[in-house]
Amino acid sequence: xxxxxxxxxxxxxxxxxxxxxxxxxxxxxxxxxxxxxxxxxxxxxxxxxxxxxxxxxxxxxxxxxxxxxxxxxxxxxxxxxxxxxxxxxxxxxxxxxxxxxxxxxxxxxxxxxxxxxxxxxxxxxxxxxxxxxxxxxxxxxxxxxxxxxxxxxxxxxxxxxxxxxxxxxxxxxxxxxxxxxxxxxxxxxxxxxxxxxxxxxxxxxxxxxxxxxxxxxxxxxxxxxxxxxxxxxxxxxxxxxxxxxx
Length: 246
What we know:
The protein has 6 helices and 6 strands; from the N terminus they run H-H-H-E-H-E-E-E-E-E-H-H. It is α+β, with helices and mostly antiparallel strands.
C-alpha cells in the first residue's frame, strides 16, 4: 500500500489517460465510413438502367435525338426511382418577432351587518366601548393587479446546397430522400444531414428541389473538431452542473 499522495497521483494519471483516449490529439477528425452508407445501399438496390444505345433508339428502332427516353437529349432526367440523385437547395432566411403585453386589475368590497337579530346586537353594543357598534360586523375589501410583458426576436439565415439520394419510392409515388455531406478544413469537420419526403412533380427540370417542398424535413448542420471541442464545457464542469442542485 502506497501513501495517499501516490494513490491520488495514480488516479489523476488514469483520468488523464482516459481523457486522452476519448479525444484526438494532433489529428484531424475522420470522415464517416461510406461502406454501409444508406445512400450507397439504395444505389446498390436500384434497378439497372437499360443500355444508353438502346435508350436512345426511337420508335422505329433507329437512332434519334427526339426520343423521350431518359438518356436522350430531350429526356426527363429528374430523379424518379430508387438510387437516383437530386440536389436540395437550402435557403433559410427566417425572421420572427413576437411581443405580448397583459394588464389586469380587480377591486372588490364586501360588508356584512346584523342590525336586528333577536335583540342580540343591542345587548352586544352595551358591552362595547363608546363609538363601537355591531351594525357592521364584517367589512372586507380586496384589490389585485397583474401585468406581464414578453417578447421574442429571432433571425436565422442559412444557404446551402447538397446532393441527396432517393432511398425508397413509396406506394403513392412519393420519394424518400437522404443526403449527407462532410467538408473538412484543417482540424474542423462540417457535416450536413438532410432527409425527408418529396413529390416527383416538385422537382425542377434542373433536378433540384427547395427545402420548403420537403415533407418531414430533417436538416442538421454542425461540426466536430478542435473548435467544436473548445466551445463545449469540459467533462468535469458538465458533471458538476448535473449534480449540484444550485
